[in-house]
User: Fold this.
Amino acid sequence: QVELTESGGDLVQAGGSLRLSCVGSGQMVSYLSMAWFRQTPGKEREFVAAIRWTYDRPYYADSVKGRFTISRGRDKNTVYLQMNSLKPDDTAVYYCAADPDRHGTTVHEFRDWGRGTQVTVSS
Assistant:
């Protein structure tokens, strides 16, 4: 397992931008995929975006397509989430996730998780 640490969450006005970062300890280069999920109180954790290391192919939830971009750092231990045109509905705790063998869009397909970073978008 690797330890994942998110950062970059903040309070921002609607229409603004934020960039989240997730740094993994250990050998992330051998992992298959990394992803971002988000969760609000009383709701299930939902998929936001993911990227497969081998193919460098990103995929997104429909709610964030065209506004969010997931990318990986050159060190292959870091994944970013650039969030533009933020909306109040984007307010949530954002979690980084990674898995050595699987890829997908559900929480069950990722083994390792960070503790989350709070993003708050004011109207």
